[in-house]
């Protein structure tokens, strides 16, 4: 029976419309409660945070923290590991790494920055076991993974046959079998074509041998998603990533799901928590790392930002939510399921490169990258990432660096500095290539994100967009007591941007499930987080028929056997299924 | 000038991590403070005074400081780590990573230095009077930029991977160097007074390498650009042969590389014929055996057979225990059914079936990468754990001996080898 009062802080809780109110927050048994009786108050621990900023625990709805490509990134760049050792303490493991830290170090660093919930953005079905094994050593945070389905043979085969019911039954089986949370598409149809050395360059290009276009994949998976009423919408990494002029295909892609109504079937796991503004997701597509998809021009020579057009389109469309994938200058490691996209980057940089073909399901690529502020293209990309965050309605925008593709998550405070201070942007712009001011609109943007808006783009919007709002992303009674306290005055001076960066680099306190987990960067408790996954029940007869097909293809094509494929629950820390009845 | 003398007391075999031995750390410290500096032996923390007897003058600024290390410091690692000024004299041998990442000052080693001497050096002088180990002035694991500046002089020989990823600065080795010298070089100068061996300057983008002796197993990505006289080069002050062949490369990796190799003409005249078509490779017999260049690599068929580790099946013998040679060579050998393939040093051999094939050039042979090929490939691992499978010389002769199964080779030859038995 733990009881705690977080006393006297200035609270920012966008889903409840609380914008800088001084109030106390009461915690009982890991949940937030409305109030406490006199006797309860007497034995409650009091955390005095007067003059500090209180927000819900951070939610990162798109990050790469577990799985085989993350590990490849570590192995490929030992030079990032050996110079950044992290010693072992009485309650933490040792670790290392500055771009992709070791698994334990990732958990500690995220927690000390105030993040308590992470969503791994790409789990290859066949390598789900690996992802879960890394989740197991990812301390403190709650986590879940998105399943890569955009170039999956079963889905494509059933769609080619026009049998969307079977495709749906396969997806339900796959989500449960791999213990993952939702549907992710990476360069739909393109990753399959990459296995034949090709790619797709328009929405109507087709996957070879399966005769399904990128558009059909997106549309049908969105239909299946809403038929089940999964907590999150489809999570879409669009085609043509990182190619100049891709903004047009991005605009088309965003409208593919325009007519599809979002449905959330949460009867099986709803906790009944209410917020002032609805926490049910309203979008039917989540466009990820949109910065990489807002490229204008026709080549690197006339490369320019189209971020303003993209932001305008998102602002007027209610069916879209995006995360920015903003660039933070410095070293990064690009890792994604988009094999062809990364091949293009690797041939451009001449750097190290790894490519993986995941049998019938997907693929991936990994290559290290350096975002150099003296480079024209990189400077424009940097400005674009900020433009998108500043021009898009915070209710539809999520701040990410697509960790570690556009920069490691440790750079979030640097990003916050630029977003919250115009002067910080101007000072950076003086140093970087003139392309940043000439080929983007960043120089004309006066906006500075407020603390309320920052809480929106790092807490409320991501929690709502991935459907975890029933327990996270706000401070309503009944929600998980995940709370971050930052050591920054509510009337900070935005010109003193280094102070802003410092405040967000290390949270004063991070509280998870009602326990103080970190204090000024020091790890106090290391609980095991929950692992969420979608457990969708469909019609038994159909499911058995589909499993018959799956078994046949396992015999014919897979290098592992059917019985070795499922990830049992014992691999998960605190397995938390989201029961969804779609019978 | 003030001298601080460190006399080694330690004679254990376990290396010590002594990155504290630099003028930068010693500056402004009393004898007691220096004695209390921490060094590591594995996970165990020791004091510097547990390892050395410390004496001398402790009043100097780092610029005027000389640290003298007496005794055999072959197990003392990281001497002079990141030093910026002053001088270190090692009277005996020096351990791993001496002078690594140093930025200025001078280190003199009167004995031999172990691996990684001067790796990722940024300035200053490292002078080794004995021999040096592998990775002199090279980059560390994963990094592509090695030494950024400064000078390394090795009076004796140096090992493999001299100057990996050299960006700028000079590495002068007066003796011989091992393989992979100047790999990924992008500037600066490597001077080799003796011979160089295998994959010299491969993946070179810029910079200069001079070899006064013989180069063995020359890399294929270089194009000769004529012969120059010593005074026509910009290498003043170095002892170089009076006629040199200039090569540019590495064209195998870059379309417009700026790397330059100067090789002694008298020692390497045969390299001028590097454009000679492969079928013109001379026919050379050693006894009954024809000299050929061996290439290996995995084949798809082989991969299918050993899926799941099925190495002890007869199919594996069929798919991996053969040697492909050109039909002309096949005729030269008298159309044998089986051949014995003998390694370059003639210590190892293996019997395999023969397949004549037009896909292989004359005086070349192909054996699938596997148990049989492994028995005759030298274990030049290049620190990758995987032997270099291509381009070595072997001798093949007709044979009536039995082609052994994988299991037999592993049990009797590999394991027998480790028991100290010879396999031939």
From TrEMBL, chain A:
Q: Which InterPro entries does the entry mention?
A: Amidohydro_3, Formylmethanofuran_DH_asu, Metal-dep_hydrolase_composite, Metallo-dep_Hydrolases_sf
Domain (Amidohydrolase): give its ranges.
45-517
Membrane-crossing ranges are: none
Read off the SUPFAM superfamilies from this record.
Composite domain of metallo-dependent hydrolases
A Pfam family recorded for this sequence: Amidohydro_3
Q: Which Gene3D superfamilies match?
A: Metal-dependent hydrolases (3.20.20.140), Urease, subunit C, domain 1 (2.30.40.10)
Q: Name one GO molecular function term.
A: hydrolase activity, acting on carbon-nitrogen (but not peptide) bonds
List the residue ranges forming a coiled coil, or say none. Answer: none
Signal peptide span: none
What is the recorded name of this protein?
A: Amidohydrolase 3
Q: What is the lineage of its organism?
A: Archaea, Methanobacteriati, Methanobacteriota, Methanomada group, Methanococci
Automatic annotation (TrEMBL), chain B:
Entry's Gene Ontology molecular function annotations: formylmethanofuran dehydrogenase activity; molybdopterin cofactor binding; transition metal ion binding
> Pathway listed for it?
One-carbon metabolism; methanogenesis from CO(2); 5,10-methenyl-5,6,7,8-tetrahydromethanopterin from CO(2): step 1/3
- Top-rank lineage group of the source organism: Archaea
User: Keyword Repeat: yes or no?
Assistant: yes
Tagged with keyword Ligase: no
Molybdopterin dinucleotide-binding domain residues are 293-391
Give the top-level enzyme category.
oxidoreductase
This entry's Enzyme Commission designation comes to 1.2.7.12
- Which GO terms of type biological process are on file? methanogenesis, from carbon dioxide
Q: Which residues form a coiled coil?
A: none
What keywords tag this UniProt record? Oxidoreductase, Repeat
- Reaction(s) catalysed by this chain's protein: N-formylmethanofuran + 2 oxidized [2Fe-2S]-[ferredoxin] + H2O = methanofuran + 2 reduced [2Fe-2S]-[ferredoxin] + CO2 + H(+)
- Pfam families hit by this protein: Molydop_binding (PF01568)
NCBIfam families reported in the protein's UniProt record: one_C_dehyd_C
Q: Which PANTHER family match?
A: TUNGSTEN FORMYLMETHANOFURAN DEHYDROGENASE, SUBUNIT C (FWDC), TUNGSTEN-CONTAINING FORMYLMETHANOFURAN DEHYDROGENASE 2 SUBUNIT C
Q: What is this protein called?
A: formylmethanofuran dehydrogenase
Query: What is the protein's species of origin?
Result: Methanococcus vannielii (strain ATCC 35089 / DSM 1224 / JCM 13029 / OCM 148 / SB)
